[in-house]
Specification:
The chain is mainly beta. It has one domain: Beta Barrel (Thrombin, subunit H). The chain is 8% helix and 48% strand. It has 1 helix and 6 strands, in the order E-E-E-E-E-E-H. A 6-stranded antiparallel β-barrel has the order 1-2-3-6-5-4.
Length: 120
């Protein structure tokens, strides 16, 4: 997998408090969602035992009193903590509308200026 980490098209926000449950076909693993957008996110602290393959996975993301079932595909990976854990960047396949709304609420407001100036 190539490292597409720095080739992002959509605004990202660091977000704490979301947990991802993801299965590799044999076991279910927990990871922490850290860096999110409407079309992707990074899961950190996935154990090295998680067998990452270039395929679609289903994950359940929980937090902020909400749950989202999302189909995802890995885009990049990096080992952390001396190889004990891994971080994985995932692309969301057909993002559910509830996820898109949730992330848009979390994105910082963009300060836009009136194109005609400040008229009262």
């Amino acid at each position: 997998m190539t490292n597409l980490k720095n080739k992002r098209k959509f605004e990202r926000v660091e977000l704490r408090g979301l947990i991802a449950d993801i299965a590799d076909g044999s076991f279910v693993f927990d990871g922490l969602i850290e860096d999110v957008s409407t079309t992707g996110f990074k899961i950190s602290q996935l154990p090295k035992q998680f067998e990452l393959k270039l395929k679609n996975y289903v994950t359940v993301i929980s937090g902020y009193k909400k749950n989202f079932k999302i189909v995802i595909q890995p885009r990049w990976t990096r080992r952390t903590n001396n190889g004990y854990y891994q971080e994985v960047g995932f692309q969301i396949i057909n993002p559910p509308w509830a996820w898109t709304e949730f992330i848009q609420e979390m994105l910082p407001e963009i300060d836009t200026e009136d194109v005609w100036g400040n008229h009262e």
